[in-house]
Specification:
Layout lengths: L3 H7 L1 H14 L6 H14 L3 E5 L2 H11 L7 E5 L5 H8 L3 E5 L10 H7 L4 E4 L11 H11 L2 E5 L7 E3 L5 E3 L6 E5 L13 E5 L2 H10 L4 E3 L2 E2 L10 H11 L2 H19 L5 E2 L14 E5 L5 H10 L29 H9 E4 L7 H13 L4
Parallel strand pairs: 2-3, 2-4, 4-5, 5-8
Antiparallel strand pairs: 1-9, 6-7, 8-9, 10-11, 12-13, 13-14
């Protein structure tokens, strides 16, 4: 699905030098490389504060910890997303309210958010799934109307731009009260281990998140609030600082692959290529097709596997049907779009090192599927 070795080979001298510098300095935790990466990412995103942490799930948890929500408070999230979005909410004894998504661009919709707001609703978590924006302008307006927090789960769309109706542009992850992201190795900006970050333009929230990530202290051995231990180590920061300079190139490479997939697959009447929205560019963390007949998805996946082509299903089970979340679901809940997507989506290989021969081989095999 990704070629991390090929990507590394292209920037090997820079990566090796950055790692060696950390080893030479022997400053492995909260070293200069972490500060350097933090500042570089702030400049790239155009955001006031970036707080690096150990992983993307921690970033989400730290965001919610900083908001001082109370047990039982409700947080609206899409039902079609990775479990981490709901996991941290449940761990903090909040209530994840899972709502349906758009069947074509896969993201939460403003109509579903409105339908699920109650007196207990305190926050909304738009997930920019597969690399494309949720409707952020409408979400922020709705949040202001109901006095709600917005926490962006931007683990899959770092580097994507969002275009507001007034002509202004912001990077995803910098629009809500807090944004979060992951630097898992397969992400568009990935390190060589685990890593994550929270982003905000609110100085007080930034200060609080930073303290919470460091055992609740801003001065060593003075613990003013309850925190945890979530740090981005210096080696990972050094890797990320090198790769950040290439992020826009990676974005362009992924879009080039997506465009070639589109051209090859657009006329197949039995599948649907990814929809683009006009309010955001797409950074294609995943290139996800849908089979119009859900019974064909698994057969296609198996057929491609037989041809040596890896694919993935993101995600095979709605969150509300996961055993761990039975207590958070309405009895008999049925979200039609989410359940259809879980049975019809299939993500194809997409990464920065793909060449035309690989793309042609994959698309030729997909085209031959129906005749087999």
């Amino acid at each position: 699905m990704v070629d991390l070795k090929g990507q590394y080979r292209k920037i090997k001298p820079e990566i090796d030098l950055a790692i060696q510098q950390v080893i030479d300095e022997a400053s492995f935790i909260n070293g200069d490389q972490v500060t350097k990466f933090q500042q570089s990412l702030e400049a790239y995103l155009g955001v006031a504060h970036v707080i690096p942490c150990a992983n993307g799930t921690d970033a989400l948890q730290l965001a919610f910890m900083a908001l001082d929500l109370k047990p039982g408070d409700e947080v609206i999230i899409p039902a079609f997303t990775y479990v981490a979005t709901a996991e941290v909410i449940a761990l903090l004894r909040l209530k994840p309210v899972m709502v349906d998504v758009d069947p074509d661009h896969f993201n939460i919709t403003i109509e579903e958010i409105k339908r699920n707001i109650t007196a207990k609703t305190k926050a909304i978590v738009p997930v920019h799934l597969f690399g494309q924006a949720a409707p952020m302008e409408e979400i922020m307006n709705l949040a202001a109307e109901y006095d709600l927090y917005v926490i962006e789960d931007n683990a899959q769309a770092i580097g994507a731009d969002y275009y507001f109706s007034d002509g202004s542009v912001k990077k995803l992850g910098t629009i809500g009260h807090i944004g979060t992201t992951s630097f898992f190795p397969s992400k568009n900006l990935g390190c060589y281990g685990d890593g994550g970050a929270a982003m905000t333009n609110d100085s007080e929230l930034s200060k609080k998140i930073k303290m919470m990530a460091n055992h609740g202290q801003s001065v060593k051995y003075q613990h003013d609030i309850i925190g945890c231990n979530s740090r981005l180590d210096s080696i990972q920061a050094a890797v990320l600082n090198v790769k950040l300079a290439y992020l826009d190139d990676y974005k362009e490479a992924r879009n080039n692959v997506a465009a070639k997939y589109d051209e090859a697959l657009k006329d197949l009447d039995w599948l649907q290529i990814p929809e683009r929205i006009n309010r955001s560019n797409h950074v294609f963390h995943q290139y996800t097709i849908k089979t119009k007949d859900t019974s064909k998805r698994d057969a296609l996946k198996n057929y491609l596997a037989d041809q040596g082509i890896p694919t993935m299903i993101y995600y095979p089970i709605p969150l509300y049907k996961q055993k761990a979340y039975n207590n958070y679901s309405k009895l008999g809940i049925h979200l039609a779009n989410t359940e259809n997507l879980c049975q019809s989506v299939l993500s194809l290989p997409i990464h920065t090192e793909m060449n035309d021969d690989e793309i042609k081989y994959i698309t030729t095999k997909i085209k031959s599927f129906i005749s087999n």
